[in-house]
Amino acid sequence: MIPAGEKNKNLLTINTILQFLTKNNFDRNDTVVALGGGVVGDIVGFAASIFKRGINFVQVPTTLLAQVDSSVGGKTGVNNNYGKNLIGTFYHPKFVLIDIKVLFTLPKREMISGFAEVLKYSLIMNRKFFFWLCNYGNEIISRVNNQALLKAIEISCKSKSIIVGKDEKEIGLRAILNFGHTLGHALESHLKYSSKLNHGEAVIVGMMAACKVSVKHGFLKKNDFSKIKNLYDKLGLEADIKKYLNLSQISNFINIMKKDKKNSSNNINLILLAKIGKALIYKTKLEKTLIPFIKKELKNV
Ligand SMILES: NC(=O)c1ccc[n+]([C@@H]2O[C@H](COP(=O)([O-])OP(=O)(O)OC[C@H]3O[C@@H](n4cnc5c(N)ncnc54)[C@H](O)[C@@H]3O)[C@@H](O)[C@H]2O)c1
Questions:
Q1: Ligand 1 touching residue 71 (CB < 6 A)
Q2: Domain map (residue ranges) of the chain
Q3: Ligand 1 atom with the shortest distance to the CA of 75
Q4: Rounded to the nearest whole angstrom, what is the distance from the C-alpha of residue 37 to the centroid of ligand 1?
Q5: CA 74/CA 70 separation, integer angstroms
Q6: Alpha-carbon distance 231 to 53, whole Å?
């Protein structure tokens, strides 16, 4: 058992696991099972990938977020003081076992968090799925429709595996899975991974920001934006960045965003929307896009 929470997704926890594996003589014929949410999956996957240069591991995700996203695709890793997921590997589990029964003990807040990633797939690559979510989003989050919940998980996993199958190491296309994550990760890091904001909630704020920037730069039509905004309102998704950041903290926040591992020599591949169901990769400078946008949002009262 490792302690819950993003705060424990660090090298200290990795060391505890490695010590346990060594002490108990685990070898390459053994298998480690990651039973838990995305935090457990990322930590255990990383430990399994470096112990004796890689031992088998299996993912049994127990949160919606882990079932639709983090257990699939082979990214493992931990945070350090400088930012999120800065230390990690690409390492796939032997298999992923998903059972929706485990989701019935999850707090609703965690269902909303997982729904963020489900919504992400619809926005970046599947317009039809988005309109289906407009009808079934509430039932999925409330867990009153198992068929809809299963369908949402299946479409999400398939969507991710299509992208990862084409670009496992994130040379190009896989970057679209980071939609909403540049700002989201920075917010999580800025709040020092406090329980005030979990991963999915950060992505919810980040995706809305990316949608607004997409409109501002002439990519996303206002009509599509309104549909996204309506779904946010209908499901009560909290997108107000002012809840987590104020203007006096902006320079520290900018520094955090600049440390994002997705940046290269001051440029960033910002993931925007061309329309609902189609993402685009926009090579830009933070100073030209996200930073002025965030400053403007923070000044709005
Ligand atoms: N590797 C990837 O590709 C990838 C993708 C997306 C997110 N992530 C990572 O995933 C993490 C977030 O994962 P998460 O949202 O699952 O958070 P989490 O692992 O922190 O779990 C959320 C909370 O739910 C509890 N919990 C787990 N299963 C439960 C259950 N069945 N019933 C009741 N409570 C339960 C946990 O103890 C925890 O308190 C972040 O660290 C994020 O960076 C990784």
A1: no
A2: 1-104, 107-301
A3: 1
A4: 3
A5: 8
A6: 45
110 lines ligand 1 (CB under 6 A): yes
> Is ligand 1 within 6 A of the CB of residue 69?
yes
d(CA 44, CA 30): 14
* pLDDT for 225 beyond 80: yes
Sheet of 263-264: strands edge to edge? 263-264, 267-275, 278-285
Any atom of ligand 1 within 6 Å of the Cβ of 170? no
Residue numbers annotated as active site: 53, 75, 117, 160, 170, 174, 178, 181, 185, 199
Task: Kindly report, residue by residue over 151-190, the tens digit of the pLDDT.
Answer: 999 999 999 999 999 999 999 999 999 999 999 999 999 9
Q: Using CB atoms within 10 Å of the CB of residue 100, give its burial: 0 to 12 exposed, 13 to 18 middle, 19+ buried.
A: middle
Model-level pTM? 0.95
Q: Is pLDDT above 80 for 263?
A: no
CA 62 to ligand 1 center in whole angstroms: 8
One of 3.30.70.1670, 1.10.10.10, 3.40.50.1970, 2.30.30.40 is the CATH number of 1-104, namely 3.40.50.1970
> Model confidence over 75-131: pLDDT tens digits?
999 999 888 899 999 999 999 999 999 999 999 999 999 999 999 999 999 999 999
Distance 156 CA to ligand 1 centre (A): 16
In CATH, the number for domain 107-301 is: 1.20.1090.10
C-alpha distance across the termini of the chain, in Å: 45
